[in-house]
Amino acid sequence: MRYLMISKDSGAAPDERLYVEMGKFVEELTAAGVLLATGGLEAGGVRVTSSGEEITVTDGPFAEAKEAVAGFALVEVRSKEEAIELTRRFRKIVGDGESVIQQVFGP
């Protein structure tokens, strides 16, 4: 089962400890074959919305920065519970904030 784990921007500046601990975590998951992809996302981005035939493109940044996704990890695990446990471990490393886990369907 594949899960996309996304993290919202907490506004906290990362420190050296975060980089070290996150590096160890990423190495462990990569070696285990669990981590398929990971990355940070630009703060602003572009929002594309549609209503009927109208397509609207809006450049960021957007007013609600706390709602913005700051990073992601795509993992392949045996169960939803395993994805939750990995996300718990991630939150312990990065501290206060919010992550969302969604199952990825398809090939």
Automatic annotation (TrEMBL):
Q: Which residue range or ranges hold the YCII-related domain?
A: 1-89
Gene3D superfamilies per record: Dimeric alpha+beta barrel
Q: Which domain of life is it from?
A: Bacteria
UniProt xrefs under InterPro entries: Dimeric_a/b-barrel, YCII
Under the heading SUPFAM superfamilies, the entry gives:
Dimeric alpha+beta barrel
One Pfam family linked to the record: YCII
Could you say which protein family the record assigns here? Belongs to the YciI family.
Q: What is this protein called?
A: YCII-related domain-containing protein
The record lists the organism as Planotetraspora silvatica
